Amino acid sequence: MTPNNNNSSSSSRGIEERRKERGPGAMRIIVPLQGVVQGRGGLVLGSVIPCALFYFLQLYLRKNRSPPPTAAPPESQSQSQSSHSLTPRRSMRSPTRPPFVSSRANHATDREVSLHYLGLKACKENPFDAHSNPSGIIQMGLADNQAMAGLMGDVLKAAFNPSQIVLTAGASAALEILGFCLAEPGNAFLVPSPYYPGFDRDFNLRTGVELVPVPCRSTDNFDATINALERAFNQTKKRGVAVRALLISNPSNPVGKTLDSEMLTMLLEFAREKNIHLICDEIYAGSVYDSPEFISIAKFLESGEFDKRRVHIIYGTSKDLGLAGFRVGALYSYNDTVVNAAQKFARFCSVSSHTQCLLISILSDSQFIKKYLRENQRRLRERSAAFSEGLTKAGIRCFKSNGGLYLWVEMADLMPSFNQKGEHALWERLLSEAKINITPGSACHCIQPGWFRVCFATLSDHDASVALQRIQEFSKRCKT
Amino acid sequence: MTPNNNNSSSSSRGIEERRKERGPGAMRIIVPLQGVVQGRGGLVLGSVIPCALFYFLQLYLRKNRSPPPTAAPPESQSQSQSSHSLTPRRSMRSPTRPPFVSSRANHATDREVSLHYLGLKACKENPFDAHSNPSGIIQMGLADNQAMAGLMGDVLKAAFNPSQIVLTAGASAALEILGFCLAEPGNAFLVPSPYYPGFDRDFNLRTGVELVPVPCRSTDNFDATINALERAFNQTKKRGVAVRALLISNPSNPVGKTLDSEMLTMLLEFAREKNIHLICDEIYAGSVYDSPEFISIAKFLESGEFDKRRVHIIYGTSKDLGLAGFRVGALYSYNDTVVNAAQKFARFCSVSSHTQCLLISILSDSQFIKKYLRENQRRLRERSAAFSEGLTKAGIRCFKSNGGLYLWVEMADLMPSFNQKGEHALWERLLSEAKINITPGSACHCIQPGWFRVCFATLSDHDASVALQRIQEFSKRCKT
User: Fold this and answer.
1) With bands split at pLDDT 50, 70 and 90, how would you rate the model's confidence at B313?
2) Surface of B (289-318) touching A: CB under 8 A
3) pLDDT at residue number A74
4) Which of B347, B391, B445 to mutate to test the interface with A (most CBs of A within 10 A)?
5) Which of A 20-49 lie inside 8 A of B, CB atoms?
6) Cβ atoms of A209 and A183 closer than 8 Å
7) Cα–Cα distance for residue pair A244/A240, rounded to 1 Å
8) Which of A244, A329, B10, B35 supports an S-S bond with A171, CB 3.0-4.6 Å?
9) pLDDT at B17 over 50
10) Chain B contacts of A427, Cβ < 8 Å?
């Protein structure tokens, strides 16, 4: 109550006290240093003090520098070494180093020491009930009557442990949470490109994670190659940016192609060698309408050969069940720290209990779900074939996709010039003349100009034929 | 495709190119500098180069330093001056400086240059329809059939502009978004304490905003005083931490008291003088069950005396409508940059369209809503009075609350010692012996030990009487 009773901030008081303890000697150093920073010190002092500090820093660094070839390196150093070393990849397999988890995730799991949360926990463990538990604890610490719901179930078609699922308001929120958990701001994720344009928004807006495209080419069937991965990894490290994860979509978006066993093994081995995470966005898994069959990354982990703690799967109901408006996404992680932190972060993106109830009743009818997915895949297959045929007739090459709600097509012939500018010009003409909006490959960070993503699933049969007609007429006009 | 074709990161390539343009002269400086940073350069060069750089820095700073007493100070300097100056507050009124908006918010509003988003925008402006707009643009760039819903309406009982409302999955998400928009990580918000324990989680988990309690005391009826605000502001600035906002709840949580016109004016003037934002959490506004009446901050802004751009209101359906499970919160801001960025951030916390539909149909029956709120207030008043009476009988002092779902009570008499340790011990005994969970004041950052928040609204009449009986018996046992 007195003016000296400055309780508002204990940490500031701590600094004051420590400053007093140091005595006047410390002040003699601090004052000229302040002068240096503010440009108010003398010219001599302002130059000599930093000079002396740098001299001692150099001495210190010389003494403490560990000889690179022999000493056991800390995590970050070992990463940069492995990327430059010529030792065979297999030698990196054992022992397994724990994958990095961000300070934000560790902070989130460290919290909850407040009595407020301890009380809530005690109530949950021994809740009062007038009949069944009359000596239980009465909850008078929670201001709302919310049933903190956790829809844990079999949304994904695989054997998943419900306690490792974190529900979120849409898959974007689940992806963003991984950004918060697996990286510090300024860290990077590698992403084979072309990739889904929304990834940029999901990671760049708030998490501060940089996405580094790993260019894939038509000559490789738009598959990621180990060379491209290594190059992107090394170049990013060279810039002083730590790579924390490899982000893939399976089936891939925008290419619409499932990843085979060989590719999944290669990606898992790369993640292990670089000691980074592997994020698999499998949101179109139920929309694979043609062979080869979809294989979830979860399948590979059953062998026990790979360290599960670095693998995280994204799923949601928006694509396969056509329930985008429901905003139901799921993060499945094998890493307990990530699950724990994600559950706390999910406070900011929780799913309405009203929607959860409806979803549970939809999903519990597994006969219906199976029938729905089968019928959906049949229609996707039909529509994809119709579009593929129609576009081919117009002289437009379609990539052989087997999943997703889109085709990946090449229109380089129609561009005024074979570069990104030409692609942009074609996209603008399609929009203004043909009145068709498709996604240009450059928006997906595609390295080769001339590729476009054509989404065909939302149109009615009538509108689909109008769209095809417009594209065909436009193509004809362009070529004549 | 060739090893030299390092297209994976355009930014790194840009740096490479710029480095080449600089030529060998630049490299002669860069190489020893790298040595300095890595501790691998010579002792002499490693000390002389920084010394020389600091010398020129000092020279530069000397030349470019503006004389403080006359020149117009930049924003941050003027803030520290006003906090120390003795000029009357009224002189600060005009001209109005624009309130700070974070780089994250500016970055979010700057984005959307991707053709992907430009295409979506063009489709929205001229959408194809087989009948009404057959020459419109066909949407084949959006992979889902989501109706990107925007429930804009009259959830709040005031004249609000729908275009300034951003819907979020719960009020926590709306608060967190303000943390992202109004502050850089490491910045601070002032919060009169005791305050809602959830604020710590909402701002500390991911936004990196530090909450600085502004202690309020029973002798001031737990009102914030201008002295306490000034002290907290100055102490925070002294630590080198920028204060960006003042965060209040009205009616206050945990005290359960509405803020009067005088208090609101004082807070608005303080925010103006310090050029900081004012965040008003009005989530219990409809749960004010006794006089004096609730006054929204929006009311004050109608006079036009204050700069609206620094005011942001939080609302939600969880408390007043008992719909916590719906996860429907709202951020109302008068600041266009904040609204724009928040709309983008809300991608990660959007409300299920299924829940939005139900909510619209509930809210459109305004007769029902009025009746519901009136009945809810009547029951809150009754329950509050019953608890107040019962606790007073047990010798426990209750603060005169007029809103919220809780009472703010003093139990210092029952504590083994008059400090936070004693408060903790009493809370533990209440939990283990009386089997009652209430929120200790320390969890709300209350400066005075012995105060507790007792939530009374979630209990049935029977359970409420059991709870009261337990507290009364416990109090009797403690005193004998």
Assistant:
1) very high
2) 318
3) 35
4) B347
5) 36, 38-41, 43, 46-48
6) yes
7) 13
8) A329
9) no
10) 115, 119
Contact yes or no for A266/A192 (Cβ under 8 A): no
Quick one: DSSP state of residue A166? E
- CA dist A271 and A253 (Å) reads 21
Question: Residue A329: which H helix or E strand, with range?
Answer: strand A329-333
B180: exposed, middle or buried (C-beta count within 10 Å: 0-12, 13-18, 19+)?
A: buried
**Both structure tokens of B101:** 């908006």
B6 touches chain A (CB under 8 A): yes
d(CA B294, CA B346): 29
Contacts of A206 (CB under 8 A, 6+ apart): A176, A179, B104, B180, B206, B345, B348
Task: Give the total residue count for chain B.
Answer: 480
Whether residues A50 and B50 touch (CB distance < 8 A) is answered with: yes
CB B149 within 8 A of CB B351: yes
- Give the one of B47, B201, B219 whose C-beta lies nearest to A51's C-beta: B47
Encoded tokens for A141: 């610490």
Over residues B51-87, the pLDDT tens digits come to 566 666 555 555 544 433 333 333 333 333 333 333 3
A281 labelled catalytic? yes
Contact criterion met (CB below 8 Å) for A325 and B353: yes
Residues from chain A contacting residue B328 (CB–CB below 8 Å): 352
Nearest-angstrom CA–CA distance, B249 and B282: 6
B238 contacts on A by Cβ (under 8 Å):
12
Nearest CA among A338, A347, A349, A346 for reference residue A104: A338
Instruction: Give CA–CA dist A285/A262, Å, rounded.
Output: 18
Rounded Cα distance between B454 and B437, Å, is: 8
Classify residue B411 by its DSSP letter. -
B57 by Cβ neighbours in 10 Å (0-12 / 13-18 / 19+) ranks as: middle
ipTM of the complex: 0.72
Taking the C-alpha atoms of residue B268 and residue B275, their distance in angstroms, rounded to an integer, is 10
Q: Residue A428: what residue type?
A: E
- Tell me, what's the pLDDT at A54? 60
Active-site residue, from A157, A195, A196, A471: A196
Helix/strand/coil (H/E/C) assignment for every residue in A202-251:
HHHCCCCCEEEEEECCHHHCCCCCHHHHHHHHHHHHHCCCCEEEEEEECC
Confidence at B6, pLDDT banded by 50, 70, 90: very low
**Among B6, B104, B140, whose Cβ lies nearest the Cβ of A206?**
B104
Q: How far apart are CA A176 and CA B50, in angstroms?
A: 41
Separation CA B276–CA B434 (nearest Å): 45
pTM score: 0.74
